[in-house]
Every structure is written in structure tokens, then in C-alpha cells.
Amino acid sequence: MQKINLEELVAFLKEQGFVFQGSEIYGGLANAWDYGPLGVELKNNIKQAWWKKFVKQNKYNVGLDAAILMNKEVWVASGHIGSFSDPLVDCKKCHSRFRADKLIEDFTHGEITGDGMSNEQLTEFLKTNNVVCPVCGQLDYTDIRKFNLMFKTFQGVVEDAKNEVYLRPETAQGIFVNFKNVQRTTRRKLPFGIGQIGKSFRNEITPGNFIFRTREFEQMELEFFCKPGTELDWFKYWRKFCWDFLVSIGVDEKKLRYRDHDKEELSFYSNATTDIEFDFPWGFGELWGIASRTNYDLNAHQTHSGANMEYLDPDDNTKYLPYVVEPSVGVERMLLTVLFSAYDVEETKKEDGRVDTRVVLRLHPALAPYKVAVLPLIKKNHADKANEIYDMLSDKFSAVYDETANIGKRYRRQDAIGTPFTICVDDETVNNNTVTIRDRDTMEQITLPVDEVASYIESKLKF
Ligand code: ATP
């Protein structure tokens, strides 16, 4: 498997129509990205895979789609207005601006994160370890100050404090404030979870590494409610569940690791937190955060709103606030992880013995933007039959029809965008109603009757 660096991946994704610079014709908007025809399919497939395993197929969990704009008091209660901030530091020499904890993380190649360090500890670390400014190489920083990450705007026509609203910085609070609604309407007993996928916004100080850290992104979050005292068992359960999910959708397991938070790093309300990290070309970075959050959130909302958030346990008639385990992951980070795992350049031998190379995006078939490509061998002889097969298959899967260029080039094009199966329509198809199906990874071909193709592909989409 050949490595690809970030610049090469960005160029590749643009060239193939996965990801474009946002507002490109106006010179772009820093850190904004648009997902092209293939990118939107891949993204949707990732979300569907998560939804399938965490909500649809999961006997414990149900789904929710809460509003992005919420009453300001939600963010007061959750602590976001008071303390959802990052430690901001400027280089006095070149005036570049950084997140102090990320300077340390980059300096130590992900071995030490500044998460949980106080401003004084961060300042001390920068000084004693000679963490110079990555732009100008000087060690001369301003004091560290807190920068709130929430985007603020106004609802309605009057721009005053009363009408202030925030773009949500996480989807989780939409779940917490609906805990009782969901529990009551679904008549769920503990333990049960509520999953949600949606956009979140953070005015990050130093966005970057392409789509790894952006100001607008999507999260897939589960809040799992359980009886106090059982939370650490459930924490272990979800920690493993998330890892297994990543492996099942084709993430390279050799590049994954757990990073358990130690006492210093743990949030004050958490009794266990782990990040599942992936080895990106710039070092290990957080992909998935799994946190046991005790009853912090429900308690905060109960206290601040006055609404009773308690659960009446029918087993022993006691009332209590459930404890919560939260696995939270970004769609774009998962997409990046999937792409770095799938991208490959393979050497092949041509018929005359010369060495050729091909780019293969070895995506799990369930995630591939197109499941199948239909290629007539010779346009004038086979296009009608190929179109008939395309119509049949596109009713069931995302499929693509391609009659341009020679057949070898068309295979290569599909390999590069990760299409797992390509069907060549030739005289055999017209005369005997059979097709050859080529496998993207092995390049082997099998022959099947046309009416068995759909069930063959279907059987390969399982994960
Ligand atoms: P980081 O330390 O990288 O800023 P975090 O610990 O603040 O992340 P969480 O608040 O735990 O992140 O968010 C849960 C998940 O949401 C992260 O694991 C990540 O996958 C995703 N995520 C968070 N912030 C961003 C962002 N700015 N861009 C893209 N994805 C993000």
C-alpha cells in the first residue's frame, strides 16, 4: 500500500470531483469545502453506515433530528457560553495566531496534547520545551487568553442581546434537552441511547489539515443513558463498538489507537474518556471521542431550566438522573480516515510485460460512491443493452454508465474513484444475456446471467 501525503490527496479529491475549495471562483473562503458529486455520495454513505449500526439496527437506540438554533439558555446551562473556549496565543514577532494546546500537540507529534492543561501549565510547557513559533521560529508569545468558539448571530430583525442565538457547537445538547420527550414517547427503559447526525459550528482558532478541522462540520453523536453505577461497563462497550465499526467499514486497523485520558486531562465531570486516534500523515489525531459524562448534562439542564429530568425506574420505583456515555465523531474526519485507508497505487503488468501503475481507491463497497459501472464494450453494438442494464441496476444502487474512451481507461477511471464492480457489456450479453463483472481489487472477472447481477452486488455490500 503506497502512502499519499495530504497535498496529493487534496489534489486527487479535487480532480476526481470529491471535494472542492468552497467559494473557489471568489478566491475561496478559508477553511470552507464543498463536496462534489462523488464526495456527497461518500459522505452520505458514511452517515448511513453510522445510522444503520448505531440507530436502525441497534436494539438500544433511537434517532433524533433537533434544531441547530436553540434557546440561548441551553448554552448557559451546558457551560458553553461560560467556558467553551480554546487557549489563544499570538507570536509577538510575526503576529501569527495559534491554539496553545495544539502547538504542543504538533510539537510532540501527537504524543502530548495540551487538553486539560491550565494556561499557566501551557505557558510553562512552551517555554521549557522551547516550542518556537512554527512560522518564524521565535520563542516570544503573548499571554494565553480564552477565546470562545461559538458563532453568535441574531434571530429576528432586532440585533440586541435579547435576540442573540448561537450556531450549535455540538449536536449533543439537542439530545439532552429532549431526553424526557424521547423517553416518554418511546416508553424506553434504561439503558437506551439517542443518536443524531447534524451540522455543528466552531469558530476554531487554527482550522486546518484540509477537512480535519473546519469551522463548519457534521457530527454523529450518541448519548447513551444508563443507570448510575453501570456507566463504566457501558463505556467499555461503546469504546469497543466504535473501534469495531471503524474496522468493519474498512479503516486501516494498524493506524488506529486508543488514547485514554489521564486524571489531569479528564474533564471535571467525566469519570472516563478515550479518544480513538488515527495515524494521519501529520501524526496521530483524534477521530472519535468517547466520554463517560456522569449525569452532568441532565443535572445542568434540570437545575437551570427547572424541568424535572429524572427517570422513574420501574424496577424499584426509584427516581434518579441517568448517567451518560457519549461516543462523538465527525463525519469529515471519518471520511478523511476512510480515504487515507483506501488510497492505493498498485503496480500491474501489461500484456507485453511492461509495468503499469493504477490508482485504486479500496473503499468498502458499502461506502463506495458508485457500486457499479456499466460499460458497453463497443458503443454502437452494445450501448442499447448496456443502457437497459444500467436502468435495471440504478433502480437499486448508485450506478454509473460510461461509454467514452477505451475499455482499459474506463476500468482505471472506476478503480480510481473506488467503484467496486464494473460490468462489461459485449456480444455475449446481447446474445446470451450474460455479463462479465470485474472486481476492482483483484481485477478478476466472473461471468453471470444478467438477472443475477443485482443480488451478487447486494451480497457484497454487507458490513
Ligand atoms: P479537538 O481536540 O480536535 O478540537 P474536541 O475534543 O474538541 O476535538 P469533541 O468536542 O470531542 O472534539 O467533538 C467530537 C468529535 O467531533 C471529534 O472527535 C471530531 O471527530 C469532531 N470534531 C470536533 N471539532 C471538529 C472540527 N473543528 N472539525 C471537524 N471535526 C470536528
- DSSP helix count? 15
> What is the average per-residue confidence, as pLDDT, rounded to a whole number?
95
Largest sheet: 7 strands, mixed
Q: Estimate percent helicity.
A: 25-40%
Q: Please state the CA-atom Rg, rounded to the nearest Å.
A: 25 Å
Strand order of the largest sheet: 3-9-10-16-13-12-11
Q: Which consecutive residue ranges, at least 5 long each, have pLDDT under 50?
A: none
Structural class: alpha+beta
Distance between the termini: 22 Å
CATH architecture of the largest domain: 2-Layer Sandwich
CATH superfamily annotation of the largest domain: Bira Bifunctional Protein, Domain 2
Total separate domains: 2
CATH topology of the largest domain: BirA Bifunctional Protein, domain 2
Strand content: 25-35%
- Write down the overall geometry: globular
Bound molecules: adenosine-5'-triphosphate
Q: Just give the CATH class of the largest domain.
A: Alpha Beta
DSSP summary, beta strand count: 23
What does it look like?
This protein is an alpha+beta fold. It has helices at 6-16, 37-56, 72-78, 80-83, 100-107, 119-128, 172-176, 179-186, 231-248, 296-305, 331-342, 379-394, 407-416, 427-432, 453-460, and strands at residues 19-21, 33-35, 61-64, 85-90, 97-99, 145-148, 152-154, 164-166, 192-201, 216-226, 256-260, 272-280, 283-292, 311-313, 318-320, 323-330, 343-349, 355-361, 372-376, 399-401, 421-425, 434-439, 445-449. The mean pLDDT is 95. It folds into 2 domains: 6-69 and 167-339, Bira Bifunctional Protein, Domain 2 (BirA Bifunctional Protein, domain 2); 370-459, 3-Layer(aba) Sandwich (Rossmann fold). The strands form 7 sheets. It has a 7-stranded mixed β-sheet with strand order 3-9-10-16-13-12-11, with helices on both faces. Strands 20-19-21-22-23 form a 5-stranded mixed β-sheet, sandwiched between helices. Strands 5-4-6 form a 3-stranded antiparallel β-sheet. The two termini are 22 Å apart. Helix 2 crosses helix 11 (331-342), helix 3 (72-78) packs across helix 10 and helix 5 packs parallel to helix 6 (119-128). Residues 170, 202, 204, 213-214, 217, 219, 286-289, 328-330, 332-333 line the site of adenosine-5'-triphosphate.
